[in-house]
Design goal:
5 helices; mainly alpha; about 120 residues
């Protein structure tokens, strides 16, 4: 169970590193492809700074999840991972309500699965 939880945490972290990359460095190319149905093409250039700010926050989420892999105390490691997964899940739920339901499946659901796996570790 612990290995599966760490794999899910790693996937969520990698996903947020990817989000950091396209929001901070490829907003007008890859971002335009990803959000083609959500934003008109002419809005990508003027929103580049806003997207970069969002990308930075996604990077912080990824950094927190990656940090959890380097904590030697198992309880502290679990609490840090739960905190950052909860942040991802809340952001994903908010995005699903305010922007696109797809965000729930791409962002919130993997984080929720990670949370469940970590909590099951405690119970089992």
């Amino acid at each position: 169970m612990e290995l599966v939880a760490k794999i899910v945490i790693g996937i969520v972290a990698l996903e947020h590193l990817y989000i950091l990359w396209f929001e901070m460095f490829a907003w007008e190319s890859k971002g335009k492809e990803i959000f083609k149905d959500a934003l008109p093409a002419e809005l990508f250039k003027p929103t580049k700074g806003l997207a970069a700010n969002q990308g930075l926050y996604n990077g912080f989420l990824a950094a927190g999840l990656i940090w959890s892999f380097f904590i030697s105390d198992p309880l502290w490691q679990q609490h840090v991972a739960l905190f950052f997964l909860s942040c991802v899940a809340i952001a994903g739920l908010f995005g699903a309500v305010t922007a696109s339901v797809k965000i729930f499946f791409v962002q919130a659901l993997p984080a929720i699965i990670g949370i469940i796996l970590l909590l099951l570790q405690t119970v089992l």
